[in-house]
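We treat protein structure as text, and this decision shapes the records that our systems exchange. Such a record has a labelled line for the sequence and another for the C-alpha cells. The record that follows is passed on verbatim for readers who wish to inspect the format:
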Amino acid sequence: MAYSAIVEQWAEYGVGMAIFILRIIARIKIVGFKGFTGDDYLVPFAMLFYTLQLVSHQIMHDNGLIIAIKPDTYYKDFTDSQRDRAQLGGKANILSWISYTSLIWTLKGCMVFLYYRLTAGLKARKFVHITAGVILASYVGIILMILLNCRPLSKNWTSPYGTEYCVNNIPHFAVIGPINVVTDIMLLCIPLPLIIRAKLPLRRKLVISVLLGGGFFLIIAVILNNLFSLMYKFDGLYGTFNGDFIQFGMENPSFVLSWGTRETFVAVLVVNAPCIKPLISSSVWLKVRNKTLTKVSKHSIHSLRARTPLPPNNNNNNLKLEELERGADSESIMSEYRRDPSFNSKRAMLSPSSSNEDERRSISFLPVYEMHKGT
C-alpha cells in the first residue's frame, strides 16, 4: 500500500489520544479526582485542540490550500466549485494554526503545573512563575498575530484579492517557531538543576532525565517542523493544479502538514510520560515492594520508630509509604504529612546531614523523580 500522509497523521492522533486516556487513568488511580490539579484540568482542552488540528488537516487534504496558488495565474481559471473548495481549505488553515498553537501551549501549561508541584519550597519555584508568565503572554500574542496578521481576516483565504504575504503564512513560522523553542528551553531549565543536584544512582538519574528532559526531543521536533515546512513552501510553493486538488510540487498539502502533526505527537508523548510512568511501573513496584521493605525500608522504619514517637495509627503511616512507592502526587502526600505530628521529626532525620542514606532513599516524596528537597 502506498504511503499516505493523512493516514499517518490519523494514526499518530489515535496513539496520542490513547496516551491522554492513559494519563487520566494514571492520575485517577494515583491521586483520585479530588487530587486533580491544574494540569489535569488542562488535558481535556488539549484533547479538543488535538482533534481540531486533525479535522482541519483533513479538510485541507480534501480541498487543497490557498497558499499553493499563484495569484492571477491558476485562481482565475478555477470553476466556482474549485474556488469554494480552495477557500474552505484556506479557512481550515487558519483553524489549523490556532489549534496547533493552542495544543502546544496547553501542553506547556501542563508542564508548568507539574514543575510547580515539584518545586514546592524550592527557590526554583520563582523561575516557574516567570516561565508561566512568558508562556501565557506568548500564547496571547501568537493568537493575536494569527488573527490580525492580515485584515480583514478573509484575506487569509481569498485570492487574488489576498496578498502572498497573507496567504503564505511565512510570518507564522518566523514568530511561532522561535518562541516555541525559547519557551521549551525555559521549561527545561527548571528540572535539570534539580536532577543534577539529586544524590541518586546514575541509572535513575538517566530515567528521570528522559522523563523530565523530554523537551530536548520536542525542540528537535519544532526545528524539523519549521525547516521542512519552509523548505516545501519555497521549493514547491506554486505547484500545479491538476483540476482536482491543489498540490505542493509533487505532494499534496498533507505531506507538509504531517510535520506539524509529528511535532504535536512528540509533545503529547513528552508531556504525559511523567504522569503515565507510575501506572506502567506500579505492577513492578508491587512485586518488589516486600523485598524492598525487608532489605531497606523495614530497617529504616524500625530505626525511625525507635527514635521518633509515631501516631497511634501505624497502619496509616505504612499506607502512606506504600502510596509514595507507587508514585503518588507529591502535593497531596505532603499535605497529608504536614497533618502528621511526626512529620517534622521525620523530615529532620531525612535532611542532607542524616548519616543513614538508606533512610533517605526509602522514604521519597515522589519515587518517579526521587528528588529530595534538601539536595
Residues 234-251, 282-375 have pLDDT under 50 and may be disordered. The chain has two domains: 5-280, 283-362.
